[in-house]
C-alpha cells in the first residue's frame, strides 16, 4: 500500500499567534515523511488572509503568502476574505510571489477569462504512477465580486466542468472547498466522482471527518488552532484508495518554530512605518461609550449617512473599539480602533420596517451581544447610533426598554414611506436584523471599509495640512 499524507489548514484569519506552532508541527511532519520516503501535501483552504491584523493590513495580504511560501505549501484556494475584502488590484497581485498553485475554477475576469494567477485544477503525480486531481471553488458571493470588478460563477456549475475535464486522467479527486459544510454535503451527494473534500468557511471541526456516501468530508476549525490530516493508502495495481483516514491535530502544546517567531517579529517591526502615516489631526478627544450616545459614535453615524447619501443612518457603537484621543491620527490608529472588514451600504426600508429594526436594536440582549463573525472583529454590539433619526424609549414594568416615538428628519416616522438608510453590509448578511437582510433594494459601497469612512470624515473636519 502506497501512502499519501495530506495536511490542510483553513480559516486562519491572520491569527499569526498560532503560526509558529503550525510551522513547528508541519516542519516536524515533513522531516518524518522525507526520512521515510513518503509523499505528502500541504494545502490551504482559504481565508488565510484577514485584514484585522496589522501585518495583513499593511501588506494587503502579501505577508500571508510569504508565510505559505516559507512552509512550502503545495496549493491553496481563496476564501471570501481574500476575494472580497481586498480591492481588485490587491487581489490580482496577491499571489505574484506565490510558490504554489492557486486552485480555483469559479473566478473570472469581467471579460470571461480566468485570471493568470488561478488554475481550475492541478494534477499531482504519485510515485506509484497514480494521478491525483486537486479542484478548488470559493463561496458564491456574486454581488460583492461583481462590485469589485470580478465575475463569479456558481461553484456547482464550475465543478461540473472541471470534473468532466479531469475525470479520465485522475485516479482520485480532492476538492479544496471554501463553501461551508452544508454545501460540502450537497457536493458529496451530487458529485460522487469527488473522493475527498477539504472544507472551510463555516469553521467546522470534523475530528474524524464525516462520510457522506463514498465521499470523505474534512474541516479543521478556525484560527489555526488545529491542522487537519488525512492519511490515504492506495493500491497502485487497482489504482484506487484502500485507506482514507481523517483526523485533526491540536497545535496548542506544539513547540514553536523559533525561526518563524523571529520572522514574524521582523515583519511586525517592518509594517510600523506604513501604519504610522498620519491621516488627520483631532483637536479634542472623541469620547466613546458603547451604551450611550457619544461623540465618536455620532461621528461614525454621520460619516455613514454622508458617504452613502442616505436620509438616515444606523450603526452599532461596538464597531468602534476605543475612543480617539486628541492629536495626530494615523492609519494604524484607525485600523486598531475599527479593524472590521465591513463595508458601508444603503438599503431602502419602509418606515414600519425601520421601526421594527429599532425595536430589536434597543433591547439589552442586542446591545450586550458578543458577536463573532459576519466581518465583526469587535467585542460587543453596543447601542445602535443614529443620524437623522431621533428615538425615544421608556423602560416599562416588564423591565424592558420600549420605543415610544421615532422621528426622521425632524418629523414623525412615516410608516408607509420608504427611506434610504445608510448602514453596514454586516446587517444584510445574516440573522442580526432580518428585516434589513430581506430588503429588496441594497447598494453596497466597495472596497471602502468603515475605517476608510472615518479617515474621510476626519479629514473633512481636520486642519488643512491633513
Describe the structure.
This protein is α/β, with parallel strands linked by helices and 466 residues long. 32% of the residues lie in helices and 27% in strands. The strands form six sheets. It has a six-stranded mixed beta sheet with strand order 5-6-8-9-11-10, covered by helices on one side. A hairpin with a 5-residue loop joins strand 5 and strand 6. The protein folds into two domains: 269 residues, Metallo-dependent phosphatases (Purple Acid Phosphatase, chain A, domain 2, 4-Layer Sandwich); 185 residues, 5'-Nucleotidase, C-terminal domain (5'-nucleotidase,  domain 2). The chain is built from 16 helices and 23 strands. Helix 1 packs antiparallel against helix 9 and helix 10 crosses helix 16. The longest helix is centred in the first third of the chain and has 18 residues.
- CATH classification class of the largest domain: Alpha Beta
Largest sheet: 6 strands, mixed
User: Strand arrangement, largest sheet?
Assistant: 5-6-8-9-11-10
| Gyration radius over CA | 24 Å
